[in-house]
Amino acid sequence: MQLGIVGLGKMGFNMRARIQAADIEVIGYDPNPEVSDVGSLQELVAALEGPRHIWVMVPAGQVTEGVINELSELLTKGDLIVDGGNSRYTEDATHAQLLQKNGIHYVDVGVSGGVWGRTEGYALMAGGEKEDIERLMPIFDALRPEGPREESFAHAGPVGAGHYAKMIHNGVEYGVMQAYAEGYDLLEGSGIVDDVRAVVKAWQRGTVIRSWLLELLVKALEDDPNFAEISGWVEDSGEGRWTVMEAIDKAVPAPVITSALFARFASRDTDSDAMKAVAALRQQFGGHGVRPAGD
Question: What is the SS3 assignment for 133?
Answer without folding.
Answer: helix
